[in-house]
Specification:
α5 (169-183) packs parallel to α7. Helices cover 11% and strands 32% of the residues. By secondary structure, the chain is mainly beta. The strands form 13 sheets. Strands 6-7-9-10-13-14-15-16 form an 8-stranded mixed β-barrel. A 6-stranded antiparallel beta sheet has the order 39-38-37-34-40-43, with no helix packed on it. Strands 28, 29, 31, 32 and 33 form a 5-stranded antiparallel beta sheet that branches.
C-alpha cells in the first residue's frame, strides 16, 4: 500500500464511508448495504464491521491514517471464486488474507493473464510426483514448466508442491532434491510443499505409502526429512494434508511447531485447532482462465505481496476490509465518477470578504423613540471608516436622529447604509482569517516494521533487494519516504541495508539479509578404467563443497568428500569398479553466523571405461525411457545406426542395462537398451560442426550427406591423404545408411 495523503473534506469522507467499512476504487454506480458493497462489475466486498458514527469517523480521519490492524479483522469474507461466505479463525485477526490457487496437469492449459485479472494473488504449482508402483519413479508434472513460467510472467507469486509416495526418509530427501532441481531457474518465493495424502481410485486408497502401512512416527519423520532438505537449500518448507490426515497419518501438532502447515478442509468454517498458514477451502472454485473446477486457498500473513496494495480493488482483495484512504489518491484529485476525497479547506474564523456578501435577512431596525426631526435639518451623514455590514452603527449626537421604521427618504447624495448597503472597499484580512498551517511534525522511523528480506544467492555482483517498510499500517515509498544504502552485499555472508528517512521521516533503521553460495556449474567427469576425475566451476562464493555418490540407479547418495578450500575445483574418485555407471551430486556451502548455508545440487551421471566407445546396432532396437523391461519406448534405433555408449547401469537388484545416447537429425535421445542388445563397439568420435561425409577420402570427392553437429560416429579406420587425416565411418539419418569418409579436423 502506497503512502496516501487525505485530500478531501471530512464531510465527503464521512458520506463515502458511513454505510460500510469497504471502499470501491473508482467504481461506477455503487449500492451500499450494511455488509456488502455491490459494484456494477458484479464483485462484492464484504466485512463484518460497520461505522455508525460519522463524527467519530471524521475524528479518526483527522487524527491520521487508520492502523491496518484495525482493518483486517473481518471474521467473515466472501470467497471470490465460489461466492460462499467463509468464517476465519480469530487468530488471523489483523492479518492480510490473500486469494490463491493450486494447479497441476489436470487443470489443462491455463491462461495466466486471465487468472491474474480474476483476483488470484498467488499460485502453488505441482512440480511432480513419485510413481504409485513398486519402482517409485520420480516424475515431473508435464505442465510444470508451462505453468510456472506463465504464472511468473503474469506477475503471480508462486510456490510448488510435490505429491509424495516416499516410504522412507531417503526417498523423501530424493523428492525434495528433485523439487529443488526443478525450481532452480525460477523465482520461487512461496513455500516448497510436500503433499501428504493417499491417492485413491474406485476401490479406495492406493499407492506405495498406503501399502507400506507406515507408522505415524515414520510418516512424520519422512515429512521432516523433506522439509529439512528444503530448508537447507534456503527455501521455506511446508506440509500439505487434510484435517483428518494431520491427526491420524502424520503428527500435525509436532510438524506445525517447526514448519508451515497448509490445511485442506472443505468447509466454510474449519474447526482445526492447530496452527496453519494456508487453508485450501474448496476444490470446486471457478477461476477465469482455467477450464473446470479449481482448488482455491486463503493465505493468512502479515506480509504484503510485492506489487500489490491491500484494499485496492484492482487486486480484487475482497477478503480484506480497509477503511483507510481510497486507492489511486494523488495530491491532485483524479477525475472519476466516484467522489475522491480531497484536502479539507483551511478553517478560518470568518470567510475572507473577496466577493459581495449576502447580508443576513433583516428588517430596518426600529430605533428608540426620539424627538421628531426638523424637516430641513437632515444633513448628509458623515462617512465612517469601517462600517459593519449588518449591525446599524450608533450615530454621533446630532440634531438629526435615526430614521423611523418607515421614513420618507429625502433626496440625498448617499442613501442610508441600512436601506441598500453598498460595501466599502474591504481592507486586507486580518492574519487570523487564514491561519498559517502548523509545521508538519517529523515522523521517526524507529518504530517502522520491515518485512524480512529473504536469503539471496551469490552472483559475484552487488545484490540490492527492495525493502518493504510500513509504519502505522501504511507502506512507505522508497525515494519519497526513505532511501536505502547497502554494504557487504557482494560476497557470501551477512549483507546490511540501512533505511534512512527522507521528507517527513527522520532517523534510520538497519536490516540485513543472507547471501548464500550459488550452485556449481560445468560439473563434469572424465572416466578411466577404475576412477573418475570430477571437475566444476568454483565461482560460487562458497567456502567449500560437498560431494555425494550413488552406485546404482535411484540408489542412496552417500557423502564421499568434503572439499574445505574454495580454490579446489576437482576431485579424483578412485577405487571404483570398471565398466560401471555412477551418479554424483555436488553442492556449495558457506558458514555464516554459525549456521551452514547450502546451494542446490548440481548432478552428474558418468561411468568408468577404458576408452570412449561408439556402438553400431546390428538389428533394430527399442530405446527405453528407463532401465526397466516394461519401460516406455523412446524411439526405434534402426539397424546399422550408431549410438554413443555411456556405461553399464546397475539396479538395486544387481540387474544391468546399457545406457546409450542416440542422435538423429540433431535430436538427442538418452535411454537404455536391454543388457543383451546386439551391438558392435568401435572408437568414438563426435562431430564439432556440420560435416560432409564423402564417398572417398579427399575434399574433392563426392558428398553423400551432411552429418549434424554433435552426432556420435564410429571410427572404422584412419586414412592419410596428402598429409590430411580422414576417418572411414558410416552415418544413418533414420532412413538411409551412408558409408564414407569424414575429415578428422572436425571430430572430437
Amino acid at each position: 500500500m502506497k503512502k496516501h495523503k487525505i485530500l478531501s473534506s471530512l464531510l465527503t469522507a464521512a458520506i463515502l464511508l458511513q454505510g460500510t467499512v469497504s471502499y470501491a476504487s473508482a467504481a461506477p454506480a455503487s449500492t451500499y448495504t450494511n455488509n456488502t458493497m455491490h459494484t456494477a462489475s458484479g464483485s462484492a466486498v464484504t466485512g463484518s464491521s460497520t461505522i455508525d458514527n460519522t463524527a467519530s469517523l471524521q475524528a479518526e480521519l483527522q487524527s491520521g491514517p487508520v492502523l491496518k490492524s484495525k482493518l483486517r479483522k473481518a471474521s467473515q469474507t466472501e470467497g471470490i471464486f465460489d461466492n460462499k461466505t467463509y468464517t476465519h479463525a480469530d487468530v488471523f485477526d489483523g492479518m492480510n488474507i490473500y486469494n490463491g490457487i493450486d494447479v497441476s496437469y489436470y487443470n489443462k492449459t491455463i491462461d495466466w493473464e486471465e487468472v491474474k485479472e480474476s483476483g488470484v494473488d498467488f499460485a502453488i504449482i505441482r512440480a511432480g510426483y513419485r510413481g504409485y508402483g513398486a519402482a517409485g519413479t520420480l516424475c515431473t508434472d508435464v505442465k510444470f514448466v508451462e505453468n510456472i513460467e506463465g504464472a511468473l510472467d503474469a506477475g503471480i507469486q508462486v510456490g510448488v508442491y510435490y505429491f509424495t509416495e516416499a516410504i522412507n526418509k531417503q526417498e523423501a530427501i530424493e523428492e525434495a532434491e528433485y523439487c529443488l532441481d526443478k525450481i532452480k531457474d525460477y523465482d520461487v518465493t512461496l513455500p516448497i510443499v510436500i503433499d501428504y495424502e493417499f491417492p485413491t481410485d474406485s476401490s479406495g486408497p492406493i499407492g506405495r505409502m498406503y501399502k507400506a502401512n507406515l507408522s505415524k512416527s515414520a510418516a512424520t519423520n519422512n515429512c521432516i526429512a523433506f522439509c529439512e532438505t528444503i530448508k537447507d537449500a534456503g527455501y521455506e518448507p511446508m506440509i500439505y494434508a487434510n484435517k483428518s490426515d494431520l491427526a491420524t497419518l502424520i503428527n500435525g501438532t509436532k510438524l506445525s511447531q517447526s514448519y508451515k502447515i497448509w490445511l485442506a478442509n472443505y468447509t466454510t468454517k474449519t474447526t482445526y485447532s492447530n496452527p496453519y498458514e494456508y487453508w485450501q477451502y474448496t476444490s470446486s472454485g471457478s477461476v477465469d482462465g482455467i477450464t473446470g473446477k479449481v482448488d482455491c486457498n486463503f493465505w493468512y500473513t502479515d506480509t504484503v505481496i510485492d506489487g500489490s496494495t491491500p484494499g485496492n480493488d484492482n487486486n480484487n482483495d475482497n477478503n480484506n476490509v480497509d477503511v483507510t484512504t481510497p486507492p489511486d489518491i494523488t495530491e491532485e484529485p483524479a477525475e472519476t465518477e466516484t467522489p475522491v476525497i480531497t484536502e479539507p479547506p483551511a478553517v478560518t474564523e470568518k470567510p475572507a470578504e473577496t466577493v459581495k456578501p449576502t447580508p443576513k435577512p433583516t428588517v430596518t431596525p426600529t430605533p428608540k423613540p426620539t424627538p421628531s426631526p426638523k424637516p430641513t435639518a437632515t444633513p448628509t451623514p458623515k462617512p465612517t471608516p469601517s462600517p459593519k455590514p449588518i449591525a446599524t452603527p450608533t450615530p454621533k449626537p446630532t440634531p438629526s436622529p435615526k430614521p423611523t421604521a418607515t421614513p420618507t427618504p429625502k433626496p440625498t447624495p448617499s442613501p442610508k447604509p441600512t436601506a441598500t448597503p453598498t460595501p466599502k472597499p474591504t481592507p486586507s484580512p486580518k492574519p487570523t482569517a487564514t491561519p498559517t498551517p502548523k509545521p508538519i511534525e517529523s515522523i521517526d522511523l524507529s518504530k517502522a516494521k520491515i518485512v524480512k528480506i529473504t536469503d539471496k544467492t551469490y552472483t559475484g555482483r552487488e545484490i540490492m533487494p527492495p525493502v518493504q517498510i510500513s509504519l502505522n499500517g501504511n507502506t512507505l515509498v522508497e525515494g519519497e519516504d526513505y532511501e536505502l544504502t547497502y554494504s557487504d552485499n557482494i560476497n557470501t555472508g551477512t549483507a546490511t541495508v540501512t533505511i534512512t528517512g527522507t521528507g517527513n521521516y527522520t532517523g534510520s533503521i538497519v536490516s540485513s539479509f543472507i547471501i548464500k553460495p550459488k550452485k556449481t556449474s560445468s560439473f563434469s567427469g572424465t572416466p578411466a578404467n577404475k576412477y573418475i576425475t570430477l571437475k566444476w566451476n568454483g565461482n560460487t562464493g562458497a567456502q567449500g563443497y560437498q560431494i555425494y555418490r550413488a552406485d546404482v540407479y535411484n540408489g542412496t547418495y552417500k557423502k564421499i568428500k568434503t572439499v574445505t578450500k574454495r580454490t579446489v575445483t576437482s576431485f579424483k574418485n578412485t577405487k571404483l569398479l570398471s565398466d560401471h555407471e555412477y551418479y554424483y551430486k555436488i553442492r556449495s556451502y558457506a558458514k555464516i553466523n554459525g549456521k551452514t548455508y547450502y546451494s542446490s545440487y548440481a548432478t552428474l551421471t558418468t561411468a568408468t571405461m577404458k576408452t570412449r566407445q561408439a556402438a553400431i546396432a546390428t538389428s533394430n532396437l527399442y530405446l527405453l525411457k528407463t532401465p526397466a523391461a516394461k519401460s516406455a519406448k523412446l524411439v526405434t534405433i534402426p539397424k546399422k545406426a550408431t549410438v554413443e555408449y555411456l556405461g553399464k547401469t546397475y539396479l538395486k537388484n544387481n540387474k544391468t542395462f546399457i545406457h546409450v545416447s542416440y542422435v538423429v537429425k540433431s535430436k538427442n535421445y538418452n535411454g537404455y537398451l536391454l543388457p543383451k542388445a546386439p551391438l558392435k563397439f568401435y572408437s568414438l568420435g563426435k562431430t564439432v560442426a556440420a560435416l560432409n561425409i564423402r564417398k572417398a577420402a579427399g575434399t574433392n570427392k563426392k558428398i553423400l550427406a551432411v552429418i549434424p553437429e554433435g552426432t556420435p560416429v564410429a571410427i572404422f579406420k584412419k586414412v592419410i591423404v596428402k598429409s590430411d587425416t580422414w576417418y572411414k565411418t558410416s552415418y544413418h539419418d533414420g532412413k538411409k545408411l551412408y558409408n564414407g569418409y569424414i575429415s578428422a579436423d572436425y571430430i572430437n
